[in-house]
Design goal:
- By secondary structure, the chain is α/β, with parallel strands linked by helices.
- It has three domains: 1-73, no CATH class; 76-153, Non-ribosomal Peptide Synthetase Peptidyl Carrier Protein, Chain A (Orthogonal Bundle); 173-398 and 421-456 and 519-534, Rossmann fold (3-Layer(aba) Sandwich), CATH 3.40.50.
- Helices cover 39% and strands 11% of the residues.
- It has 18 helices and 15 strands.
- The chain has a seven-stranded parallel sheet with strand order 3-2-1-4-5-7-12, with helices on both faces. A two-stranded parallel ribbon has the order 6-15. Strands 8-11 form a two-stranded parallel sheet.
- Helix 9 (231-244) links the parallel strand 2 and strand 3.
């Protein structure tokens, strides 16, 4: 558009034209994106501010002002039901008006306000609405259609469920673009020992422990990709993360170089000189970065978890071939009832892999196998649910498992759930990955990293009681009713933000399959770790107690009652 156009506030014709453009953009987004990803606000500019190199200068993009918000295309409710829903949303969120295409979460809603909104709608309409349904239908228009249909919501994991893709779509997502391969003329992969390593996801707790192990087991310089404003800012973020888990040591700063970037953007959001420097200097990549949210749909997680993995593989083929070591998950295996043995093979079957996070990991897993076939050395590591350090108990408090433990303790009740957990301590996982990756001898191999032994959910509840957190055991439907009631009352409960994963009758399939007894082969892992002294602690009284001690000291959990030995 012409940069000399007048401000919209002084030009009614321009204002109308821009409002029409916003409406057309919204319609286009609605055709191409799931509801949860459709922007609620569009800002039109005469031109984009740019840096000297031609890239968009994001720092000069304007914030959304009241004027721009008012000018955004607004589609008024057209039915009594839409009007009723929009009124409840406006009241709960404390905003002036809500259009039928506005997204509840883009307007400031979250799991807690979603629970309150569901309660208000039930009072107003007499229809019980699950919070999960709001996540699947986050616009007034979509929610009104859902309520009008008065049919059961799509089964979790079904082809119509908003958090999952159908198996055929998922397989198509995993096809690598043709340019992801060793670039013509690229230097061959450097042999171990490696002098420089790129690490993604270095500010998470798995990343912090990975950096610690890579520093301890090599002399390599680590380039750590971090969302940051500058290299110094990136390095400070890495240091803070490592300090928070007790794994930072004096002198580490001399071997860590912060790289400001973003997995969710093309070419990792790196400027050309930095990209070319990494392509030239890095000799190995440990790709740990991901958006680890079980509550979000596949398409919301795709930019970071899928497209970011593509960009890492693209970098791996530039200038010098670089081995890529990818942190995947046991969740890439299909969920099925009964006994199943899963070998350390490439993930090939998308049927039964449900939930956005699990599906993005499956796609990443498959892309690694394709990349290896094209000449990029890759290794895949599939841990179970990564838990705290077996040495210190240090752990992130924002994982789904830890939220479940705290939420049940806050509720004073545990759900009945016939599942087994594979708990993989973070320091064990990091040591196994670093030892194997630095050896440079296992390219083209997948490794299962389950816990020392499966832990039944009921046994975990017993251990909690023995460690000072006794819980009532409730049938699932009754437990859910208590949790939903607590959320509607506005009580503080760690599981409120995960309510979309629970339904009135059953939890989502991606949380675990009732009656499933998977066995994960570890022949490759045992061979790679032979003689290393790296071992996994069993999830029994000593280890669980260490985790609870850490949570209590850091005030994640309340002080315990009298402790007993189970």
């Amino acid at each position: 558009m012409n940069a000399s156009l007048p401000k919209t506030s002084n030009a009614p014709l321009t204002q109308a034209a821009w409002a029409e453009l916003r409406a057309r953009l919204r319609d286009f987004a609605a055709r191409e994106l799931p509801d949860a990803m459709i922007p609620s606000r569009f800002v039109v500019l005469p031109e984009l501010p740019r840096l000297p190199n031609g890239k968009v200068d994001r720092s000069r993009l304007p914030a959304v002002t009241g004027e721009e918000t008012a000018a955004t295309a607004y589609v008024a409710p057209s039915t009594p039901q839409q009007t009723q829903i929009a009124g409840v949303w406006a009241d709960v969120l404390g905003i002036g008006r809500v259009g039928v295409k506005d997204n509840f979460f883009e307007l400031g809603g979250d799991s807690l306000t979603a629970a309150q909104m569901a309660a208000r709608l039930r009072e107003a309409t007499g229809v019980r609405l699950g919070v999960r349904e709001l996540f699947d239908h986050p616009t007034v228009e979509g929610l009104a259609r859902r309520l009008s249909a008065r049919v059961p919501a799509a089964a979790v994991g079904g082809t119509g469920h908003a958090r999952s893709l159908a198996a055929r779509e998922l397989a198509a997502e995993a096809v690598l673009p043709a340019d992801i391969a060793p670039q013509p003329g690229a230097l061959p992969a450097a042999p171990a020992p490696y002098r420089s390593i790129l690490v993604t996801g270095g500010t998470g707790y798995t990343g912090a422990f990975l950096i610690r192990e890579l520093l301890d087991r090599s002399k390599a310089r680590l380039y750590v990709l971090v969302r940051a404003e500058s290299p110094r800012h990136a390095e400070r973020r890495v240091r803070r993360a490592m300090e928070s888990y007790g794994v930072w040591r004096a002198g580490d700063e001399r071997r860590i170089t912060g790289v400001p970037g973003d997995l969710g953007r093309p070419y990792l959001a790196l400027d050309r000189p930095t990209y070319l420097r990494l392509a030239r200097d890095v000799e190995m990549i440990v790709h740990n970065g991901a958006w680890s949210s079980y509550a979000l749909p596949y398409r919301r997680l795709k930019p970071v978890n899928v497209l970011g993995t593509r960009e890492v593989l693209r970098l791996a083929g530039r200038h010098r071939v670089k081995p890529v070591h990818y942190i995947s998950s046991l969740a890439v295996y299909p969920g099925r009832p009964g006994d199943h043995r899963w070998a350390e093979d490439a993930a090939t079957d998308p049927h039964g892999v449900v939930g956005g996070y699990r599906q993005t990991k499956w796609v990443g897993d498959r892309m690694m196998a394709q990349a290896h076939e094209r000449g990029l050395p890759t290794c895949v590591y599939r841990p179970g649910q990564i838990t705290g350090a077996q040495t210190t108990g240090a752990c992130a408090t924002d994982t789904f498992l830890n939220a479940t433990l705290k939420g049940c303790i806050q509720l004073g009740a545990a759900l009945s759930f016939d599942v087994f957990l594979e708990m993989t301590p973070v320091d064990y996982c990091a040591a196994a990955v670093a030892h194997t990756a630095l050896g440079g001898a296992w390219h083209g191999t997948a490794f299962n990293l389950p816990g020392a032994q499966p832990l039944a959910w009921d046994r975990l509840v017993d251990l909690l009681a023995g460690c000072g957190y006794p819980l009532r055991r409730l049938p699932y439907a009754r437990w859910y009713a208590e949790l939903a009631a607590a959320a509607e009352r506005g009580e503080d409960n760690e599981l409120v933000r995960f309510l979309p994963l629970f339904g009135p009758e059953l939890p989502a399939d991606d949380l675990g399959y009732r009656g499933s007894r998977p066995v994960f082969d570890t022949a490759n892992l045992r061979a790679a770790l032979a003689g290393s002294g790296i071992a996994c602690a069993a999830p029994e009284r000593e280890l669980i107690g260490r985790y609870l001690d850490y949570f209590e000291v850091h005030r994640f959990l309340p002080p315990r009652a009298e402790r007993n030995v189970p």
